[in-house]
Every structure is written in structure tokens, then in C-alpha cells.
């Protein structure tokens, strides 16, 4: 795989539906450009460092996630296994969304569109007086969360009042699985050709949507909502309250974490096919920045249409995020435009290509692990891919029932919020604290005592401080981030004096063990053989090492604790206890 193809494949994996429908919404919610402050802090101290870590580990060990972490320590093999299994289960419901986009792609060829107001008697409603026609088409006819009598499916007081299977959705999802199989049936050799179409195409279409959106009436009000955080009535946000709100920082961290798709085994799997001497740093930074750039650019396509919907007083103008934006609000705007079928086609293809890249890329992670495993060693890539796609398509059946939308929402929340963040903590622990630990402790008793004090002090603080600061006073939970710094310095000082080493030796052998070796290997690959070290390399090694070893685990634990506190105070989704 060439270097350009690798970057393109990783961008295709990272850039997904969340770039289109979540990042713009978070900007609007948290004061427009103000959201960029926590977003870029998290990007440079979490997103880019972890991306580089996964690329470096995959390339160094030439294995998938399980092989990588087993190589660090045999007991960490489960961390790699958990990341791959979690990512695989995400695909089983992610492909449902791609299936929805296929349904909309088919409907784009129907004239007038199935959600056209020509089917209504009052310009708004078709069969349900309480639903706008685009809501009825999606929620009643496709997702089936609205019953035939136009009432909402009850999954709060009961598990589900009815159980109806959506054959149309499952057939569309099955088509997605078949497409994914033929993309990945030869491994990265086949998928590396596909990304040259599926990565640029949605970017081009988003550009077309932006150009069209900016010509719409009232688009400027939508852009003001996006960049300045004004509400629909034109009121400015409370910037001081937003910047001090821990929830904004938590959501910025979560957006970086999930948008880049780190800790799912895909980046490790793809980089395992690279030459061991391929430069890493430049590629990782490009992947992260391109991902963020596309997220920012997509916001103009989204909020120009939101502003237009507000201007025409659309009943669905408040649908500014997630599936409501993509399958309810945007189609409502499209129906009023000249050439509505063309714009419906553009929207459907954009959603499909954004999703399909992420889908087959995620599946490369378990496929790589299977190839590394002795159990599947004799199996061909075609058979491995077939097994993954057949099993995945069967699992997707659960999400095609009318209660599947609830199941999808709950699984997505808890799997992404808790398991993936916890995996991130264990992965950075493996790279920053377990890797090279046995070699360091074997040097002397002083080395051992110094390392143990630092490790115990750091991890006890990483677990206790977020719990104490968040659960005692959630609104002031960010204070825990500040308290952590002097406590960490205190343990550094104790560890230094116990070691009996010079400061330089202590920093290399105790404070930065593990990450120092990995960061040195990355900077070495960035220069030609025989070239001297450059001044930026030392800065990079300290920044990356500090981020992976000290900042990322604590930040992810803080985010985990913050999310747990929110869920304990307010049960997610107001669903039945079964869910």
C-alpha cells in the first residue's frame, strides 16, 4: 500500500457520519467557534497522540490489535480483543444507518419524492396529524418507531408494546453487507482501490451541498448559529458559562475520540501492513487534521440548510443533529428546492459513502486479527471476510425491529461511552506504563521502588480524583483537572529522590520509560539514515510522551466518570429498565 493510499484509507475510516451530523451540532450548542478551544486542546493532547501511538504500534509489531498488546504483555491481549470485538459490534448497527441511506437513494428516483408535500392535504401532514411528512416517512415507514395509529412506540413503561420487523430496512442492510464483503474480500489490496472513489466523492458532494446551501434564503442566519452559537431567535450564547461547563469539554473529548475512531483496532490493523521503516508522524498528523477540516467544512452544508428551514418556518427546523438532521430535516429542505430529486440523490450518496468507508475499514481490524491467529491461519482472506459479513448481517437483524431503534440508541451510548473509553485507558496504560517496565525494574532495587511509587501514585490519583471531583460537585468537576497537576509533580519528586539517579537518567528511565522508546523510533523514521537529529524531535518526544503516559489516561478517566455521573443522575433515554 502506497503512502498516499494509506492516508486516504485512514481518512476514509475516520471521516464518517459523525463528521456530518455531530460536530456542527456541538459547535452550535456550545457557542460556535468557542467550541474550537476544547476541541483543539483535545485534538492535540488526545486525538493526534493516540493516533500516532496506534500507527506506531501496528507498524512496529506488524500485527493487529491482539498481537500488538500481547507483544507488550501477554495479559494485555484481552485489551486488543475487546477493542476489535467492540468495533465489530458497532458495525452491526452502523450498517443499519447506511441501509437507511440506501433506501433514500432508491427513493431519490421517485418523482415526486415520497416525502413531497404534494401527498399532503395541508402542505405538512400525510396520514399523521402530529407528524410532518418527512418525520412520518422516516420514523413511521422506515424506522417504525411510530405505530400505525400515529402514536409513538412505547419502550419506556414496557420493553416494547409491539414487535414489528422492518423487511425493507433489513434488505437494504443486507445489501450493505454484500457491498462491504466485495470491497474487503481480498483484504487491503481490494479496499485500497475502493478508497480512491469512496473518500473523495463525499468530499466533492459536501462541497456541492455547501455551494448550494449558501445560495439559500436565510442561510446567513444558519451560519451565524454554527460559528457564533446564536439560537434560532438570534440570541447570543453565554460564553463564560459555556467555557467553564465541564460537559462541553467532555463532549469535545468524546468527539475527537470517536470521530478519529481511535482504540477500535483499525488504525493498528491497517498500519501493520506498512513497511516497518515508513515515516509515521507526518501521516498521523495529516489524518487527524484532514478529519477535523472535513468536519468543519461539513458544518456549512448543515447549518446553511438549518437557517433556510428556520426562514421558511419548517416544523422540523429544530432537527439539527444525528438521524433527525440527515433523514428528516435535510430531506424537508430538499423537497422545496428546484431539482429536488437530484439533491436527494446527492444527500443519499454522501451519507452512503461517508458510512461505507468506516464500515469496511472497521472490519479490517477483526480480519487482521483473524489472519494473525493460529485458529484462522490457513483461512483465506475471502473466507475470513465472508464469515465476518455473514455473522454481522445476522446480528443486524436485532436492529431491524421497531424496538431496534431503542436498542441501537442504548448500545451506541453505552458501548461508545464506557467500553471504548475504558479500552483507551488500558491501551495507553499498556504503551506508557507496561511496555519496558520489566526491563526497568530489573536494573536495580532503586529503579524498581522509584517506578512503583510513580505508577501507584499516578494511577491511584487517576482513579480517585475524577471520582471525588465529579461526584461531589459536578458543575465544578473541572477543578479536578487542576488539582491533578501538583499531585503528579509531588509523585515525580518522590520518585526522583528514591531513584538515586541524575535528573536526566531518571527522566529517561523512570518518568518516560516506554513512551521514550516509542517516540524515539517515530522521530528516527522521519529522517533519512545518517541525518542528525533535528530540534523539533525533542519537543515532539516530550509532547507525545507526556500526552500518552500522563494526560490521555487521566482525561479519559475523567470523561468516563463524568458520563457515569450524568447517567446516574438522569437515566439515559428514559427507557424501560430492561434496556
The computed structural class is mainly alpha
Element pattern in H and E:
HHHHHHHHHHHHHHHHHHHHHHHHH
**What is the 3D shape?**
globular
The CATH topology of the largest domain is Hydantoin permease
Rounded to an integer in angstroms, the radius of gyration calculated over CA atoms is 25 Å
Main sheet characteristics: none
The percent range for strand residues is under 5%
Distance between the termini: 43 Å
Mean pLDDT: 88
| Share of helical residues | over 70%
CATH class of the largest domain reads Mainly Alpha
Stretches where pLDDT is under 50 for at least 5 consecutive residues are none
Count the helices. How many?
25
CATH architecture of the largest domain: Orthogonal Bundle
Q: How is the quaternary structure best described?
A: single chain
Number of domains: 2
Number of beta-strand segments: 0
SSE diagram, text form:
Elements: H1 3-14, H2 17-21, H3 23-29, H4 36-61, H5 65-72, H6 77-107, H7 133-142, H8 167-184, H9 188-198, H10 200-214, H11 219-228, H12 239-243, H13 246-260, H14 266-271, H15 281-311, H16 322-335, H17 340-372, H18 381-395, H19 404-434, H20 437-441, H21 445-472, H22 479-499, H23 503-511, H24 515-525, H25 535-569
Amino acid at each position: 500500500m502506497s503512502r498516499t493510499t494509506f492516508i486516504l484509507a485512514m481518512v476514509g475510516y475516520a471521516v464518517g457520519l459523525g463528521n456530518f451530523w455531530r460536530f456542527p451540532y456541538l459547535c452550535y450548542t456550545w457557542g460556535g467557534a468557542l467550541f474550537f478551544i476544547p476541541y483543539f486542546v483535545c485534538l492535540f493532547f488526545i486525538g493526534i497522540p493516540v493516533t500516532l501511538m496506534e500507527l506506531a504500534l501496528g507498524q512496529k509489531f506488524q500485527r493487529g490489535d491482539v498481537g500488538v498488546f500481547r507483544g507488550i504483555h501477554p495479559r494485555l491481549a484481552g485489551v486488543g480483543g475487546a477493542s476489535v470485538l467492540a468495533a465489530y459490534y458497532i458495525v452491526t448497527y452502523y450498517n443499519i444507518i447506511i441501509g437507511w441511506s440506501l433506501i433514500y437513494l432508491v427513493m431519490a428516483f421517485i418523482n415526486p419524492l415520497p416525502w413531497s408535500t404534494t401527498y399532503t392535504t395541508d402542505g405538512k401532514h400525510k396520514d399523521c396529524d402530529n407528524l410532518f411528512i418527512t418525520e412520518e416517512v422516516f420514523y413511521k415507514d422506515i424506522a417504525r418507531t411510530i405505530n400505525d395509529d400515529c402514536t409513538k412506540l412505547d419502550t419506556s413503561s414496557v420493553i416494547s408494546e409491539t414487535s414489528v420487523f422492518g423487511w425493507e430496512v433489513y434488505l437494504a442492510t443486507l445489501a450493505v453487507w454484500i457491498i462491504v464483503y466485495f470491497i474487503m474480500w481480498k483484504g487491503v489490496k481490494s479496499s485500497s482501490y475502493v478508497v480512491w472513489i469512496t473518500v473523495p466523492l463525499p468530499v466533492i458532494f459536501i462541497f456541492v451541498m455547501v455551494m448550494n446551501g449558501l445560495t439559500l434564503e436565510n442561510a446567513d442566519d444558519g451560519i451565524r448559529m454554527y460559528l457564533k452559537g446564536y439560537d434560532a431567535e438570534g440570541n447570543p450564547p453565554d460564553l463564560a458559562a459555556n467555557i467553564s461547563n465541564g460537559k462541553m469539554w467532555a463532549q469535545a473529548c468524546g468527539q475527537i475520540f470517536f470521530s478519529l475512531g481511535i482504540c477500535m483496532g483499525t488504525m493498528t490493523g491497517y498500519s501493520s501492513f506498512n513497511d516497518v521503516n515508513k515515516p509515521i508522524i507526518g501521516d498521523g498528523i495529516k489524518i487527524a487534521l484532514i478529519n477535523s477540516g472535513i468536519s468543519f467544512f461539513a458544518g456549512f452544508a448543515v447549518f446553511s440548510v438549518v437557517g433556510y428551514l428556520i426562514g421558511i418556518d419548517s416544523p422540523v427546523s429544530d432537527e439539527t443533529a444525528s438521524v433527525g438532521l440527515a433523514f428528516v430535516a435535510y430531506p424537508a429542505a430538499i423537497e422545496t428546492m428546484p431539482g429536488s430529486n437530484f439533491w436527494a440523490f446527492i444527500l443519499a450518496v454522501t451519507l452512503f459513502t461517508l458510512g461505507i468507508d468506516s464500515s469496511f475499514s472497521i472490519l479490517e481490524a477483526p480480519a487482521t486479527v483473524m489472519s494473525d491467529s493460529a485458529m484462522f491461519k490457513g483461512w483465506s482472506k475471502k473466507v475470513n471476510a465472508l464469515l465476518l459479513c455473514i455473522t454481522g448481517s445476522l446480528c443486524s437483524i436485532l436492529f431491524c425491529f421497531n424496538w431496534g431503534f431503542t436498542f441501537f440508541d442504548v448500545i451506541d451510548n453505552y458501548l461508545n461511552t464506557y467500553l471504548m473509553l475504558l479500552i483507551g485507558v488500558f491501551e495507553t496504560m499498556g504503551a506508557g506504563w507496561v511496555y519496558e517496565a520489566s526491563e526497568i525494574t530489573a536494573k536495580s532495587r532503586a529503579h524498581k521502588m522509584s517506578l512503583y511509587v510513580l505508577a501507584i501514585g499516578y494511577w491511584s490519583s487517576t482513579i480517585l480524583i475524577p471520582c471525588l471531583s465529579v461526584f461531589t460537585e459536578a458543575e465544578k468537576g473541572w477543578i479536578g483537572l487542576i488539582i491533578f497537576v501538583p499531585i503528579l509533580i509531588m509523585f515525580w519528586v518522590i520518585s526522583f529522590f528514591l531513584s538515586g539517579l541524575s535528573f536526566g537518567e531518571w527522566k529517561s528511565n523512570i518518568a518516560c520509560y516506554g513512551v521514550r522508546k516509542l517516540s524515539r523510533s517515530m522521530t528516527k523514521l522521519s529522517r533519512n539514515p545518517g541525518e542528525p537529529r533535528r530540534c523539533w524531535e525533542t519537543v515532539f518526544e516530550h509532547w507525545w510522551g507526556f500526552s500518552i503516559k500522563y494526560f490521555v489516561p487521566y482525561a479519559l478517566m475523567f470523561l468516563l466518570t463524568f458520563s457515569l455521573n450524568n447517567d446516574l443522575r438522569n437515566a439515559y433515554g428514559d427507557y424501560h429498565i430492561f434496556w
